[in-house]
Amino acid sequence: METALEKNPRNEPNHARRIRAVRRMFTDISPRYDLLNRIMSARQDVRWRRFAVARVPAEASRVLDVATGTGDLAIDLASARPDVTVFGVDFTEPMLRRAEAKTAERGLSRRISYAIGDALRLPFADREFDAVTVAFGIRNMPDRRSALAEMMRVVKPGGKVITLEMTFPKNLKLRRFFVWYLNRVIPALGGIISGNPQAYRYLPDSIQDFLHPDDLTELCHSLGLKRVQAFPLMFGLTYVHEGLVP
Ligand SMILES: C[S@@+](CC[C@H](N)C(=O)[O-])C[C@H]1O[C@@H](n2cnc3c(N)ncnc32)[C@H](O)[C@@H]1O
């Protein structure tokens, strides 16, 4: 599948190259993706997703999880909220196949549907959802503004957009430790377990290249989201941002 970015000749070629590389990388690491997440974050990724799930409005009944990957957030949400129907979208097919298998194992296939699709051109009509979530996905999208705008398009007025993303803690000592961990430990560990050290060198780069939490807040405001809030988790190592669609 070609993404919107790859098709548009006005887009920078390095963006298109980067997108292809991202899909190749997630294809390669999909068999070990969940295991490595748990090991590298000492299972904190599970807590962070649960925090994001808890921010989904109580009255929501249809929720879209963008860049759903192996479906962890979609599955957490459907498990926690029996009244919610969840849709997961991702452009890496092997990640989605894993999501489907996990969903079936948990008996949630009737309430979670997956579709292959590009976050920049979501295969859904305007205002179809009560909320949209994206966990550890938006930093892989070079054009964050367009990605957020596209998520807003599919949410009803008054509905919520929720992002969960890693960042660098403000505390200098913690930051130094995190830089060391990201640049030394993760590529080594990720390389051994996944057999793809390159993929786990991409991870620190993608976090370092991502927006500062305040800049993401600013971007949300500039797109017109209302009541924007940012929640630091684990000393600001990870942030949840949310805002309401006008
Ligand atoms: C780090 S994984 C996160 C997966 C999952 N949300 C989680 O919490 O574990 C990033 C996912 O984003 C997907 N992705 C990146 N850019 C995308 C895009 N433009 N459209 C759809 N999926 C995208 C990748 O295929 C990958 O599955």
Folded structure, characterized:
With 246 residues, the protein is an alpha/beta fold. It has one domain (4-168, 211-244): Rossmann fold. Helices cover 47% and strands 20% of the residues. The protein has ten helices and seven strands. The protein has helices spanning 4-7, 13-29, 33-40, 44-54, 72-80, 93-105, 144-153, 172-194, 199-209, 213-222, and strands spanning 62-66, 85-90, 112-116, 129-135, 155-166, 226-233, 238-244. Strands 3-2-1-4-5-7-6 form a seven-stranded mixed sheet, with helices on both faces. β2 (85-90), α6 and β3 form a beta-alpha-beta unit. α4 (44-54) crosses α5 (72-80). The longest helix is centred in the last third of the chain and has 23 residues, at 172-194. Bound molecules: S-adenosylmethionine. Residues 3, 22-23, 26, 49, 67-69, 72-73, 90-92, 95, 118-120, 135-137, 140-141 line the site of S-adenosylmethionine.
Present the secondary structure layout.
Layout: H1 4-7, H2 13-29, H3 33-40, H4 44-54, E1 62-66, H5 72-80, E2 85-90, H6 93-105, E3 112-116, E4 129-135, H7 144-153, E5 155-166, H8 172-194, H9 199-209, H10 213-222, E6 226-233, E7 238-244
Parallel strand pairs: 1-2, 1-4, 2-3, 4-5
Antiparallel strand pairs: 5-7, 6-7
Helix pairs in contact: 4-5, 8-9
S-adenosylmethionine binds next to helix 2 and helix 5.
The description of the largest β-sheet is:
7 strands, mixed
Number of domains: 1
- Estimated radius of gyration: 17 Å
Q: Give me the side-by-side strand order of the main sheet.
A: 3-2-1-4-5-7-6
H/I helix tally: 10
CATH structural class: Alpha Beta
The CATH architecture comes to 3-Layer(aba) Sandwich
Could you name the CATH homologous superfamily?
Vaccinia Virus protein VP39
Average of the residue pLDDT scores: 90
What is the first-to-last residue Cα distance?
A: 32 Å
Classify the fold: give the CATH topology: Rossmann fold
Q: How many beta-strand runs?
A: 7
